[in-house]
Specification:
By secondary structure, the protein is an alpha/beta fold. It has 2 domains: about 160 residues, ATPase, nucleotide binding domain (Nucleotidyltransferase, domain 5, 2-Layer Sandwich), CATH 3.30.420; about 170 residues, Nucleotidyltransferase, domain 5, CATH 3.30.420. Helix content is about 40%, strand content about 20%. The protein is built from 11 helices and 10 strands. Helix 5 runs parallel beside helix 7 and helix 8 runs parallel beside helix 9. The longest helix is centred in the last third of the chain and has 28 residues. It is globular and about 65 Å long. The protein starts with a strand and ends in a 20-residue tail after the last helix. The structure holds 5'-O-[(R)-(carboxyoxy)(hydroxy)phosphoryl]adenosine and zinc ion. 5'-O-[(R)-(carboxyoxy)(hydroxy)phosphoryl]adenosine binds next to helix 5 and helix 6.
């Protein structure tokens, strides 16, 4: 079975073909073509929705054709067409959804509507056995959720951010420091230069709170005030490190609370860290230690599968096709807001 996936929910136009052989559990990416719009949005310090829609619309045809060509697969050999139909920016979602629907109709094959977050959560199952239920921290530019994945389409949100997403906080701090979007990798690099000379006593929002929810806007404001007063390069390195450490402490403490409160703790064997922020090596290391302490296997996708990509959408398509052979409704509209617990 070959599924062609399309991802256009934010600032990456991506298409991929993932193959799963009969009786096999895993998938193989035959080809993926991803065009990032980062350079178009850089000067605005974030993604401009209308600009993003235009870019998706301009690039989608070329990207899908190139994916087919790179994999040497003829369109007639594709078994289903999957597209991100939410959550995300409506203009981009419309481009990918309509393109996939049109291909599905013209080839008389199923169209599969995929939730972007479901793609992030399920993608590690493309290359290794991970049984449900598992616990997952999804950290990206738009989301920060602690989830219990009970099945390929059943998710419980155990905790989530009440304001900013983690990637968003990284992006905003980098912007205040004068760096380009995306800020996550830049802050991670700055933090590596720290020498621990300066301490800023940054707040750790909700850390003492019994709930499993998170909050990052107060932390972001505290960092902004420090930067606005003027800081040296040396201070900047230490500040980036403290910011990242505090974020990580908050995430770890809430995930630990979530693990401790699981109803059927002995049925959960794995923890998955996923989403764009999961490519951060510092955060990965800390969660590996937590998993060791809790007796869970630590799993994070390889870096290129952490940030937005169409392979995860094609793989989610396979997961759906495995259980439910039929097409999604061709008349469905993309959903800019679409919670994982409402699949
Ligand atoms: O999953 P993703 O590609 O897009 C969304 O679905 O949002 O995540 C993008 C986010 C950006 O905010 C970016 O700054 C962050 O992931 N990110 C990182 C790192 N690499 C990307 N944050 C922290 N450390 C990184 N190394
Ligand atoms: Zn994403």
């Amino acid at each position: 079975m070959k599924v062609l996936g399309i991802e256009t929910s934010c600032d990456e136009t991506s298409a991929a073909i993932v193959e799963k052989k009969n009786g096999r559990k895993f998938g193989k990416v035959l080809s993926e073509v991803t065009v990032s719009q980062i350079n178009k949005h850089k000067k605005f310090g974030g993604v401009v929705p209308e600009l993003a829609s235009r870019e998706h619309s301009n690039n989608i045809d070329f990207i899908v054709q190139k994916t087919l060509k790179n994999s040497n697969v003829n369109l007639s050999k594709i078994d289903a067409f999957a597209a991100t139909t939410g959550p995300g920016l409506l203009g981009g979602l419309l481009v990918g959804t309509n393109y996939a629907k049109a291909l599905a109709i013209s080839c008389n094959k199923p169209f599969l509507s995929i939730n972007h977050l479901q793609g992030h959560v399920l993608v590690p199952r493309m290359s290794r056995v991970i049984d449900f239920p598992f616990i997952c921290l999804l950290v990206s530019g738009g989301h920060c959720q602690i989830l219990l994945a009970k099945d390929y389409n059943k998710f419980k949100v155990i905790g989530e951010t009440l304001d900013d997403a983690v990637g968003e906080a990284y992006d905003k701090i980098a912007k205040i420091l004068g760096y380009d979007y995306p800020g996550g990798p830049i802050i991670e690099k700055l933090a590596l230069e720290c020498n621990g000379k300066y301490h800023f006593n940054l707040p750790k929002p909700l850390i003492k709170d019994k709930s499993k929810n998170l909050s990052f806007s107060g932390l972001k404001t505290a960092v902004r005030r420090i930067i606005e007063k003027g800081i040296s390069d040396e201070q900047k390195f230490d500040l980036a490190n403290e910011f990242q450490t505090v974020i990580c402490e908050c995430l770890i403490s809430k995930v630990e609370l979530a693990i401790n409160s699981l109803k059927y703790r002995n049925k959960v064997n794995s923890f998955i860290l996923t989403g764009g922020v999961a490519s951060n090596l510092f955060i990965r290391r800390k969660f590996k230690l937590l998993c060791k302490k809790k007796g869970l296997s630590f799993i994070a996708p390889e870096k290129k599968l952490c940030t937005d990509n169409a392979s995860m959408i094609a793989w989610a398509g396979h997961e759906i096709l495995n259980r439910r052979k039929k097409s999604s409704n061709l008349s469905l509209s993309p959903k800019p807001r679409w919670r994982l617990d409402s699949l």
